[in-house]
Amino acid sequence: MPVQRRIERHQLPYYLKVFNRFTDKPMGYIGNVSLDGLLLISQLPMLVGARFDMRLKIPGQHGLHCIDFSGTCQWSREDVTPGCYDSGFALVAPPADYVEMVDALRFYFSFHPLAASA
Q1: SS3 state at 19
Q2: Which InterPro entries match (predicted)?
Q3: What is the mean pLDDT of the chain?
Q4: How far is CA 8 from CA 16, 42, 51, 55, in A?
């Protein structure tokens, strides 16, 4: 008999949608991030070697907070999911807001053991 889980799941693509900074059209979703780059999951392959100006819209206490950054596509290939593509981007001088977001995500998704009480 399977065990039913009762843990609320957070759909990260809902929160981490990437937009073209100038046209405001969706480009895809963040698959993963680091201080140096990101994985973009999209419905179309990205042009390898091209520089893209991107925007994240992060919900906050005072409405949406936009993080603008640029990245150069290093590679793009079809995902195991039909109709999806994975593309790796190297970021060009990521802004402080992006660095803070990566740190916040790293903290949020890390295991933090409780301090032992004496």
Answers
A1: strand
A2: PilZ_domain (IPR009875)
A3: 83
A4: 18, 25, 37, 28
Q: Minimal CA–CA distance to 83: which of 52, 44, 55?
A: 44
- Cα distance between residue 21 and residue 79, in whole Å: 24
- Please tell me whether residue 63 adopts helix, strand or coil conformation: strand
pLDDT digit string, tens, across residues 71-96: 999 999 998 888 999 999 999 899 98
In angstroms and rounded to an integer, the radius of gyration of the C-alpha atoms of the chain is 17
- 30 bridge partner residues: 40
User: What six digits make up the tokens of 61?
Assistant: 């206490």
The whole-model pTM stands at 0.77
DSSP annotation of 2: P
